[in-house]
């Protein structure tokens, strides 16, 4: 029963986080200026993790396995409404880099144009919210079903 409650609570927390992030990102989009831009390149950030190797046929473990994952952040170039040339890295990255030279619609904060995003589903960062909302719903349904409430 405790595990079911934990599942339901985690599910609701995931949904809450998705909703809060979505509202924050939509508020940015409402106050942002829009304009054309280009993907001038990308910056990669790496994260390395290690895990123990599985035992071999004799039961001995080898050296730990390391895995490196990369997140690619687009670098945008665009001109603001008042004519300033801006080159900035977005704060929304992904596993697959954007094609360099691609023309994109840009959302940027008029007071701080360095805060910019690509104006599409992926560029606005909605994949995170989708992941947390779907995962939260699954956890909630599993927890409530185990409690007999569904």
TrEMBL record:
Record keywords: Membrane, Transmembrane, Transmembrane helix
What protein name does the entry list? DUF3592 domain-containing protein
Pfam families (UniProt xref)? DUF3592
Q: Which residues does the UniProt record annotate as the domain DUF3592? A: 64-121
Q: Does the keyword Transmembrane apply?
A: yes
Q: Where are the transmembrane segments?
A: 130-149
Renumbered residue ranges of the record's region Disordered:
44-63
Source domain of life: Bacteria
């Amino acid at each position: 029963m405790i595990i079911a409650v934990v599942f339901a609570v985690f599910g609701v927390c995931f949904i809450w986080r998705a909703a809060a992030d979505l509202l924050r990102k939509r508020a940015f989009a409402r106050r942002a200026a829009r304009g054309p831009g280009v993907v001038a390149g990308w910056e990669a950030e790496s994260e390395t993790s290690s895990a123990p190797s599985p035992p071999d046929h004799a039961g001995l473990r080898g050296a730990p396995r390391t895995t490196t994952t990369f997140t690619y952040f687009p670098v945008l170039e665009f001109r603001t409404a008042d004519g300033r040339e801006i080159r900035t890295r977005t704060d929304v990255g992904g596993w697959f880099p954007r094609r360099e030279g691609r023309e994109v619609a840009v959302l940027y904060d008029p007071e701080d144009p360095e805060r910019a995003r690509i104006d599409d589903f992926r560029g606005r960062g909605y994949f995170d919210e989708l992941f947390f909302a779907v995962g939260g719903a699954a956890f909630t349904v599993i927890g409530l079903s185990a409690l007999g409430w569904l």
